[in-house]
């Protein structure tokens, strides 16, 4: 197996990993830095809303506004509480306004950041998975990449690379396999991380209804009252509109279906006109950290650090995480160069202080929408997030009912505004090499149908799990997988084993 020796290896070419690489090279051009990206190219596995706070980009690349034109400043923002036919305006939480933000495609932005990093001399190795951590006694000394072209006998066209590094930064996003292993191995967790599943489409819409910079968020229908979640609509560039749905994976009904909610959401009379004469051009899904301040682990481990969503810095109350990821990459780079503690430095950063003030917003919704709105409203408007207690979390799968639930109806698509899952899945451009060992398996196949069929066949946004008509077994279509990771979180039996498929496989996003 080939061996490479570098100063710093970074796993994940998302906003955090690329920000860290750029700042390291800005401060010390002589450093040898390698970024691993499991997607076929940078941006292929990146998905977000996204309205971002651009301040972190201003710090990292002061001239980015002159060089990168694919942004739309927020021109108007609206927040609604929705029923099936009505939408009532709501006030934003203090500090949660989108004013000053920009609407972007995060997939496209990471490509720009990769270009900036490469111009500084950073090496980016795309299509290679960070498969396991290399250890020297108790210290992390690098990463081994996954093999490629493995046949049934276990032989491989490319056995992978052992990348030895003086420092390892793990920036693989929410629910990454390496970060989970590191958190468990070094006992870094404080409280369990909790997650939502974000399902997103990009539409080309009629110019007559397009409003550049319009940002809409909605809480309520079609998400059930016992679940946390809502929809968003962002008007970006070139008559492109991003529409999506985020639903907490602690929703108690096992037949919770975010994809179905999104299809219904587009039909709401308040905004269905945006989509009437349009067409979808992109589709994807990804889990999002929702645990907030109390779920941030200790990020430093011997020989490296967790950054970005691997560290859990998403502020779900503000629906913001990209700027926090970039800031974490910047601060992790600075801490490494100065031989200081990232954990100690970053906990004083404004993005973490914001997380502290919003720490109780998401946990209130474990008691249902009504109590969630009342409790979080009191916490934010009356006490400004400074009330002297912190609500706790439990793993999402423990909230799921095993009995006594009502099967939720699935939205029936009209083929104009709403579509069936397999139709939209084509817009994710998902591809896995044929013949490779399936990357999704069941630890106990015999319990899948008897206990968990609702979980498996409803929540997945890629039709990976299905029970064929007239059959009594669960079929796993792993070639459909878009790597959202929701199945490893939502399964109440924790019966799913998800490992990395061959590098370069999965979705190939370009506009998400």
Automatic annotation (TrEMBL):
<keyword id="KW-0274">FAD</keyword>
<dbReference type="Pfam" id="PF05187">
    <property type="entry name" value="Fer4_ETF_QO"/>
</dbReference>
<keyword id="KW-0560">Oxidoreductase</keyword>
<dbReference type="InterPro" id="IPR049398">
    <property type="entry name" value="ETF-QO/FixC_UQ-bd"/>
</dbReference>
<keyword id="KW-0830">Ubiquinone</keyword>
<protein>
    <recommendedName>
        <fullName>Electron transfer flavoprotein-ubiquinone oxidoreductase</fullName>
        <ecNumber>1.5.5.1</ecNumber>
    </recommendedName>
</protein>
<comment type="function">
    <text>Accepts electrons from ETF and reduces ubiquinone.</text>
</comment>
<dbReference type="Pfam" id="PF13450">
    <property type="entry name" value="NAD_binding_8"/>
</dbReference>
<keyword id="KW-0479">Metal-binding</keyword>
<dbReference type="InterPro" id="IPR017896">
    <property type="entry name" value="4Fe4S_Fe-S-bd"/>
</dbReference>
<feature type="domain" description="4Fe-4S ferredoxin-type">
    <location>
        <begin position="472"/>
        <end position="501"/>
    </location>
</feature>
<keyword id="KW-0249">Electron transport</keyword>
<keyword id="KW-0813">Transport</keyword>
<keyword id="KW-0411">Iron-sulfur</keyword>
<keyword id="KW-0285">Flavoprotein</keyword>
<dbReference type="InterPro" id="IPR007859">
    <property type="entry name" value="ETF-QO/FixX_C"/>
</dbReference>
<dbReference type="Pfam" id="PF21162">
    <property type="entry name" value="ETFQO_UQ-bd"/>
</dbReference>
<dbReference type="InterPro" id="IPR040156">
    <property type="entry name" value="ETF-QO"/>
</dbReference>
<dbReference type="InterPro" id="IPR036188">
    <property type="entry name" value="FAD/NAD-bd_sf"/>
</dbReference>
<keyword id="KW-0408">Iron</keyword>
